[in-house]
Design brief:
The structure holds two protein chains of two kinds.
Chain A: E1 5-9, E2 23-27, E3 31-35, H1 42-51, E4 62-65, H2 72-76, H3 78-81, E5 83-86, H4 98-108, H5 116-127, H6 143-156, E6 162-166, H7 175-183, E7 188-192, H8 196-201, E8 204-209, E9 212-218, H9 221-245, H10 252-258
Parallel strand pairs in A: 3-7, 3-8, 5-6, 6-7
Antiparallel strand pairs in A: 1-2, 1-4, 8-9
Chain B: E1 2-8, H1 14-27, E2 32-38, H2 44-49, E3 55-59, H3 65-71, H4 73-82, E4 87-92, E5 107-113, H5 120-123, H6 126-129, E6 133-137, H7 144-157, E7 162-166, H8 174-183, E8 220-223, E9 229-232
Classes of the chains: A alpha/beta, B alpha/beta.
């Protein structure tokens, strides 16, 4: 089934008052942002979508797919749910190599893993400064490596029409590239973020407060320009990080010559 | 009377999952009673008691908690009937990972912790392989990919179960388990009820208190490390 849009029908906030935003439709190809302070209910919103809630969660929200109530089959079986999620937590506990893990994951999604392992690792290595090798044990991967691997995994193995991302910013990976990779091929992407670079990369964003959707903000052209500049800054920051990581010393020249925005 | 038997690895979150599930059952107007079977100590009766449901605890002491549960099942069902309830939830500690507590007409619910790693489903016994419903907890701590791999391993061991990702803190997924319970069949003829799988083999002198370890003192069904099993005794 082709998924062309998801609709979130508003529920109630933490005190039981109706949400300000009654209805939110995100269409295929759109990158949508979710912003708001800690504890405002961002992760719950994402989790409502992940579960395809039908008024049976704390928020009382209902999720429609292509303007219809999703089948109980789709709700119950994650293989049929076709939603990829990148959560804040990305601790690997599986005692196996990157290669074994990717092969098993492909199997659990019912796809042929031939050639996939190299493809995932190559994409992942484009996003992080610390290359991953396929015979590495999963448990030794750093935060950045794990994130990159999962982003690449979502792009290739759990390739789903709906992608939910919960605070991808905390791991020192190339965010723009990561988001572009995930948003590719006309997906519906929802990003929770405190990061201005990511927030402004979206077309629209919903503001969360006290467990409820309170407002939808359209990203203006001016904000898009701000986003570009912030991204340059971010890339520069990442390059500084790489230098420090590789034992190099930084100088004032690094700031003056490298950062276009400064 | 519906009988739900809940088993799982220690610390997986059986009690947390069941408290949220009971809340959902209460919303549906069901009258639930809970019995917690443990070995030495439990204060789960306090946690269950807060829900306002009749609660009983059974301590099996030095006996296998699942064997203890099986010997006492008639009394437990009788007790639940006296409490004027329609659903009895028996949560058992089952510590050897080889336990087989479910009966044919009960709803067997296995609670297993995703952070224990994808090899765990291969290391545990009939409480996973003969369960109707498998609740996977703590999935929010790991990545979706790792959750899917864990799920695949569970299905390899028990292809017929229904799996739910459950969060013992928020109660996410417990509504579905409550739904499974309301759809489960009743146990009508307890006298002819059967276990789904035989309980683990343990008929030896150690079972009745022998502490000497030399080979010559052992009697009963003895299995050697080379795989040879024999009976020693009269």
């Amino acid at each position: 089934m082709e998924i062309t849009e998801i609709k979130i029908i508003g529920g109630v906030d933490k005190c039981g008052n109706p949400e300000n935003v009654k209805e939110l439709i995100v269409k295929k190809g759109e990158i949508f942002g979710v912003v708001g302070p800690t504890g405002s209910g961002k992760s719950n919103l994402i989790s409502d979508i992940e579960q395809l809630s039908q008024g049976d969660t704390v928020s009382g929200r209902k999720i429609m797919i292509n303007n219809e109530v999703p089948s109980s089959d789709m709700r119950r079986d994650p293989r049929k749910r076709r939603i990829a999620q990148l959560s804040q937590n990305m601790n690997f506990l599986a005692d196996m190599t990157v290669e074994e893990f990717l092969i098993m994951h492909a199997k659990s999604r019912g796809i042929n893993s031939e050639g996939l392992v190299d493809k995932v690792i190559e994409l992942a290595n484009n996003l992080t400064g610390e290359p991953i090798k396929k015979d590495y044990n999963l448990t030794i991967l750093s935060g950045g490596q794990s994130r990159s691997l999962m982003v690449a995994d979502v792009a290739v193995i759990s390739d789903s029409p709906i992608v939910l991302i919960d605070e991808i910013e905390n791991a020192g990976i190339k965010k723009h590239e990561a988001l572009e990779l995930l948003a590719g091929y006309g997906k519906i992407v929802m990003v929770i973020t405190h990061d201005p670079v990511l927030a402004l990369m979206t077309n629209r964003r919903v503001v969360m407060k006290n467990g409820a959707m309170t407002e939808i903000i359209e990203t203006s052209d001016e904000e898009k320009e701000v986003s570009k500049r912030l991204n340059d800054l971010d890339g520069w920051m990442l390059s500084m990080r790489e230098k420090v990581r590789h034992g190099e010393k930084l100088s004032i020249g690094d700031i003056q010559n490298t950062c276009k925005t400064c | 009377m519906k009988v739900v038997i809940v088993a799982g690895t220690p610390g997986a979150g059986k009690t947390s999952v069941m408290t949220h599930t009971i809340k959902q059952l209460q919303k549906k107007g069901k009258k639930t009673a809970v019995i917690k079977i443990d070995c030495l100590y439990t204060d789960d009766d306090v946690r269950y008691g807060k829900l306002g449901v009749p609660t009983l605890i059974g301590l099996s002491k030095d006996m296998c908690p699942d064997h203890f549960a099986i010997y006492n099942i008639e009394e437990m069902v009788e007790w639940a009937k006296e409490q004027n309830t329609d659903t009895l939830i028996i949560e058992t500690a089952g510590l050897c990972h080889r336990c087989a507590p479910y009966t044919k007409n009960s709803l067997g619910v296995c609670v297993i912790d995703a952070t224990s790693g994808p090899n765990t489903p291969r290391k545990v016994g009939p409480f996973l392989t003969s369960a109707d419903v498998v609740a996977i907890t703590k999935g929010d701590i790991i990545s979706q990919a790792e959750r899917e791999v864990f799920r695949e391993r569970v299905l390899e061991m028990n292809p017929n179960c229904t799996i739910y990702d459950v969060n013992g803190l928020s109660g996410q997924g417990c509504a579905e388990i409550a739904e499974e319970i309301t759809e489960a069949k009743d146990i009508t003829d307890l006298e002819n009820e059967l276990l789904r799988h035989n309980a683990p083999l343990s008929v030896c002198t150690l079972c009745v208190g022998e502490t000497r370890i030399a080979k010559k003192y052992h009697r009963g069904v003895l299995r050697r490390i080379d795989g040879f099993t024999k009976y020693v005794g009269e």
